[in-house]
Structures are given as C-alpha cells and as structure tokens.
Specification:
- The strands form three sheets. This protein has an eight-stranded mixed sheet with strand order 1-5-6-11-10-9-7-8. It has a five-stranded mixed sheet with strand order 13-12-14-15-16. The protein has a three-stranded antiparallel sheet with strand order 2-4-3.
- It contains 18 helices and 16 strands.
- Helix content is about 40%, strand content about 20%.
- The longest helix has 20 residues, at about 15-35.
- β12 (about 365), α15 (about 370-385) and β13 (about 390-395) form a beta-alpha-beta unit.
- With about 450 residues, it is an alpha+beta fold.
Length: about 450
Amino acid sequence: MAQKPSIPKGTRDFSPAVMLKRNYIIEVIKKAFKTFGFLPIETPSMENLSTLMGKYGEEGDRLIFKILNSGDYLKKVDANSDFEAKKMMPKISEKALRYDLTVPFARYVVQHQNDIALPFKRYQIQPVWRADRPQKGRFREFYQCDADVVGSQSLLYEVELIQLYDKVFTDLKLPSIIKFNNRKILSGIAEVIGEEDKLIDMTVAIDKLDKIGIDKVKEEMLEKGISSLAVEKLDPILNMQGDVSDKLLTMREVLADSVLGLEGVDEIQKVIDKLTVLGLESTEIDFDLTLARGLNYYTGSIFEVQAKGVQMGSIGGGGRYDDLTGIFGLKNMPGIGISFGLDRIYLVLEELGLFPSLEADFTQVLFVNFGEKEADYCLKALQKLRRAGINSELYPDAAKMKKQMNYANKKGIPYVVLVGEDEMKNDLLTIKNMADGSQSKRTVDEMVTWLASL
C-alpha cells in the first residue's frame, strides 16, 4: 500500500501564488533594511545545543527542537543512571535547530568580532523552528526578518528602528501600533514595591492585564507570594489612563525613589520627543507598561508591534540587549534589534485584502508549439521578450492545441502566441487574448512595446 503523503504539524507547503505574496513582503522589508544601512548575513539552520540552551528561559528551552546525534546516539547513555531527560539530552543530542535569529547573531558577533566594523548593523531573513503547539498565526517552522545593531548604546537606534518599522508598514499599507516599554521601568517598579526578587512573577501577571483584568492580575500576584501592600502600591499604574505623556508622568510619580526606573522613563521620553519632531507616516506609538517580552535578555527598550483592524498576535517585536554577547564571553557589547513576523504579516495582509496585484510576476505569454520549425522561430521571438523583461515560455512539445490551451488556462497566462507558416513568412506573431478570445497580429518588436505599455 502506497504511503499517504503528509508533512509535520505546524509546517506548510507554499504554492507559487503564496510564494509570490511572501516574496513581496520580504522584498519590502529587505528594501527598508538596505535603506537604513543594514547589511545581510546568514547563519546555519542548526547550532550547537549549548549555544541555544539557557538563553530563552525554561519555557523557551522546552520549545527548542533537538537533533539526535548521528549513528548510535544512545552509546553514551547509562541505562541505570541517565534515564531522565535532563541527564540524557547532552549525551544523545549535541545540536539543535535555531529557535530565533538573535542568539545565533550574538554568537556570530563574538566569533567574528575581529572582522566586523562597529557599530555593526546586520539584517537576516531565515527560517526558525519552535516545538510549539500549532494554531492560527503560530507555526513550528516560520521565517523571521531581523535587523540588529551591536556596538552602540545610543538611543538614536531606538528612534531608527521605530522609523524602520514605520517605513515597512507604510509601504505595506498596513496600519499598526508599536507598543514601547523599558526593562528598567519594570525593574524600578519591583524595587519601589519592595519585591525585587519577584520581578518575573510581577511582570508575567501585569502582562495579562488586558486579558484577565485588574482583579485577576492582583490575585495572581498574591498567589505568587507578592505582598498585599506591594500589590496595593501598584494601583496607580494598573489603573493608568491617558496618552503617552500622561502615562509617563504617572510613572515618574510612582518611580520617584528609583534611579533605575526613572532612567527607563527618561529613555522612553527622549525617544518619543525625537519621534514627535520627526513624525511617523502611518504607525502609532504607545507606552505599554504590560509589555514584558524577553526579560531573560532584554535590558532596556522593549518593542512589540500589532496590526490594527484584525485579531492577531504581535507581528513584530524586539528590544535592547546590552549584555547578550556576554553569554559567549564578550562583555560590554551593547545591542538592540527588532524582528518582523513574516507569516503573521502575511495572514494580516490577506485578511485585510492589502496585497497588491502580483499578476505581472506570473507568465504573461505562452508560445504554442506546432512543430520543430515553428518552435525554432518562437525561440528567437521568446528571447527578445525575455530580454525585455516579459515573463514568457514556449510549450515544450507539439501536443494537441487543446492541451496547450488548457495549460495556459490552468496557469492563468493572459496571452497565447500562435505561429504557423503564414506568420513565419510575414515575420509576424498572432496574439490571442485568453480573456476575451480576440486576436491581433504584431511583429515581435511591436509586441514588446505593446506589452510594456500594458
């Protein structure tokens, strides 16, 4: 019995029509990366397991796809003492598929530190893998499109990366909002309520404010061991209202006794002030205290982008990670980066009907094959069309006319060229419009000019 073809859950095949749309998004992002002075790199799909483990927190580590060692991968395992996942894993797996592009980039910077000029601005567009539960907008294999800068603490890069987001989403005609926070503010809050050791528990709870409401957030913090007095001190920020200026003013009052917290507020204020002067084309920016992504390695600014008008998770995010390269032995290497979620951006553009017409990327002209002599004539005409940038092809066999026309219809080719004895004698092409069935005769040069005008 023949095997039924299938692919792993959370992965996808992409048809030509889908790939054209994906490539459209990638080209828009890539063009923006280049415009802002970022240079491309690539890193291997697999990294040493030790490179990835411990960089994403306990939950992230569980989502890393491990690769079994080749050959007898159990030969190092002691059945009596190693029959536990944590003990067994280092002995049966030394490599893993990359979880994101940021940690491999940090590894790249350290490994190639003598070959790069600082500040180093790189972009990277490659697939990553996570052993997550597949659902809408969440896949086990997906692309990330990252832009990072290492070697500078300047807040100008916060400004630039927000402008980069604005450039891409303006070009995609996708209204969006950039949520902006700072790790120093979150650390400052934990400090002023006297719960520094509960920073992660506090921020995880606050992160759920929009989903479960203020009462449930307080309840969760109390369950995590945060004192009722500390929770009470959070009331002013949990009930915070108003625009960015109002929210930052509230944060200054709450964080009056925290030098680190006020430093975070000042950093956000400086970025907002510069962006107010420069202006953004189509992207809204907002201070969001509940934003607490990536606390395991973000040290300053934190970004998250959401699309307007559609229910979808974040379509981009990032932040400042001033000590990420320290995990590989290179201290004092500040960095900041953002990522675009290609797959989610695709879903949003599709749902909102924002993809432009991409018909020009398909085959525009099919030459019908009536035989060897006619095919040779068509090849010369075909060469002129292709040199003029017109997507065209010749049917490979002198098959029945119906079969060749069906091929054109199935591929959505708008024009078919017929060449027989009369056309070759008069150096003409008969062009059939597949939409309305009309026909016209033109020279090759006339056809090139005509198609270009369309």
